[in-house]
Amino acid sequence: MIQRTLLCLTGPDTRDFLQGLITNDVNKADQGLVYAALLTPQGKFIADFFLAAQDGGFILDVASEAAPTLAQRLSMYRLRADVQIDECPLSVSRGTGPAPVGALSDPRHPDLGWRHFTDTAQSDDTNWDALRVAHVIPETGIELTPDTYILEAGFERLNGIDFRKGCYVGQEIAARMKYKTELKKGLAQVQITGTAPVGTDITADGKAVGTLYTQSGDLGIAYLRFARATGSMEAGSAQVRHS
């Protein structure tokens, strides 16, 4: 399981500060967990995270490998805003069984269960890769990389972006992809016969079609050029077909 880090953001300017930076509406955190991302000005992925309101501030639940970069970027944008950014002394629990008191529903898909921020992590034995593949849920450091455009990664379907909230960093690029272009590439579920390492190139008739990522059983997540992803494809020694 990907290790998680919790960042606590506090201070009177925190809500407005985050609202001008991230892809989703911060005010939704008053009703539950929010999924969002921080982008570059060019609209590319920096980090994805969950946002929870707590004690007048916010908790950001982020992959540990992305936490230093996220904290650094937030600090860079802080300027004169009265916002404090610290690591929280809490752990992330998650599961798909009965939710403990205080747990919050994962906003990306109902099958992804709940997340809980407590002193001790007590997650269940859910097969998260199987769930991610079943619902094409990208993961930091695997499907989500610095080259990712979040609409190609399914953030609209995963409730990770709000097109009505106003401006944020990278908003212009995301809006242009939403309203002025048709997505020709993106993450999709594929059927696999055999196995191949994460990151294996997918080809068809010798032409590049995409990249194979997380696999579970005979299914996987792949980044595809949709117009080329027809019929049988190859990923190393594995045979791949767009589901």
Spell out the blueprint of helices and strands.
Layout: E1 4-10, H1 14-19, E2 34-39, E3 45-54, E4 57-63, H2 67-78, E5 84-87, E6 91-95, E7 104-105, E8 114-118, H3 128-135, H4 171-179, E9 185-193, E10 200-204, E11 207-216, E12 219-225, E13 232-235, E14 238-242
Antiparallel strand pairs: 1-4, 1-5, 2-3, 3-4, 6-8, 7-8, 9-12, 9-14, 10-11, 10-13, 11-12, 13-14
Notable characteristics:
single chain; alpha+beta; six-stranded antiparallel β-barrel; five-stranded antiparallel β-sheet; 4 helices; 14 strands
Description:
The structure is a single chain. This protein has 243 residues and is of the alpha+beta class. It folds into two domains: 4-179, Probable tRNA modification gtpase trme, domain 1 (Gyrase A, domain 2), CATH 3.30.1360; 185-242, no CATH class. 14% of the residues lie in helices and 35% in strands. It contains four helices and 14 strands. The strands form three sheets. Strands 9-12-11-10-13-14 form a six-stranded antiparallel barrel. Strands 2-3-4-1-5 form a five-stranded antiparallel sheet, with helices on one face. Strands 6-8-7 form a three-stranded antiparallel sheet, with no helix packed on it. The two termini are 26 Å apart. The model has no long low-confidence stretch (mean pLDDT 95).
